[in-house]
């Protein structure tokens, strides 16, 4: 008995040390970031305004790309680079650090602060105001406006609820999949296994009432695992008052594809094209060697019929030749994604677009094309967090040419941590029509992106320091709705014209 108690206490102590170690690592990683340390050691004495230097970090010319600034550093500071023996990627890391500071990119912990502007916001095409609709609960992740003016709200660790037309949040909807509390919270971010993710209406919702939910389905002993594991799943159902009814599983994977990787990279974003096919994103919820294996779901976008059956024109469909019943090959639409945190449909064409988070740099806006390889982890504009080139792809033995991949339509380097987005499609802001309104997490910025004929035409920061923008949606009233997370809570706001 005494021996068992000692073992239990030892395990508890070990667990406490691990938790403390993770907490310390996450909380101090900003101060320990290699390019920041290198800048302070080698560059700050000449390039910090407070010390009589040039104030490089506060200069207003923020349009420099990382590549342009890297070239300037290589030319203007070749002697310093040689004497300090900087490895090649450190020069690009320094360029990223400088641009991040100019853009006032906060640390992940500080990004959970939020400020809702009380003044009129001026922008290139429209001036507008931001109105607070309501404060919401823990872990807000997605919203979906309803035709009658109400708004569906998903909170990762609480579930689904409805916000009425007066801005009041109702009780949690009964009958939706179970969600689980966070295992750990560090810097305002949750580590969860078993959370609710996205919500999307069926294209013909007005007639059939179908609502689609993605969530991270969790199991443990019931699927033969000694610890909790989870995986993205898509269901649909209807609302009857405050009850979820007629629930059906639409897309799921075999339990042997469930993993211990927390849901922060699960993604689970949903969209429908004009033919009524549904799409769901699955992040790198596994080791990266699985992202290019078609029989696994990770790092891919999957396509399904709205009733859950599989379209036989999916690019990797094998029909009767598919011998492995646990394979997800039949629903794979695209692959080579890192963490696709946004998915939306172009209202003009029905084309599916996605936003994708890179590492330190390399956030992307992508046009999703049938069977496309989007390159991760072999090709990226980003660096690793240790200021080294991303070497995972080569270490895994991936071997394909860049010309075989689908390059991003828009690259964001440094990375603002792009989240969900929408195409503007309303009459309240006519000069934004068909522009992408893209949220970001760490950068706390709402971007307006204009793309014409596959090329970036305009990129504007509509809002800054707003908070971590989890979702952006068009309301049926033509206003733009934003869901913001901040530490233990969140806010639902809308953008309205200044008139």
Summed over residues and divided by their number, the pLDDT gives a mean of: 90
Question: Which term fits the overall shape?
Answer: globular
- Biggest β-sheet: strands ordered side by side in the sheet: 1-25-24-23
According to CATH, what is the class of the largest domain? Mainly Beta
Q: What is the number of independent domains? A: 2
| CATH architecture assignment name of the largest domain | 6 Propeller
CATH superfamily of the largest domain: TolB, C-terminal domain
Low-pLDDT ranges: 4-26
Question: Can you walk through the features of this model?
Answer:
The protein folds into 2 domains: 2-109; 111-497, 6 Propeller (Neuraminidase), CATH 2.120.10. Helices cover 17% and strands 32% of the residues. The protein has helices at 2-32, 34-42, 44-47, 66-76, 78-84, 88-102, 205-208, 392-395, and strands spanning 128-136, 140-145, 151-155, 159-163, 184-186, 189-191, 196-201, 211-219, 229-240, 243-251, 267-272, 278-282, 300-304, 332-335, 339-345, 352-357, 363-367, 410-412, 418-423, 436-440, 446-452, 455-463, 468-474, 480-486, 489-497. A 4-stranded antiparallel sheet has the order 1-25-24-23, with no helix packed on it. Strands 7-8-9-10 form a 4-stranded antiparallel sheet, with no helix packed on it. β2 (140-145) and β3 (151-155) form a beta hairpin.
For the structure shown, list the relevant keywords.
499 residues; 4-stranded antiparallel β-sheet; 8 helices; 25 strands; alpha+beta; Neuraminidase
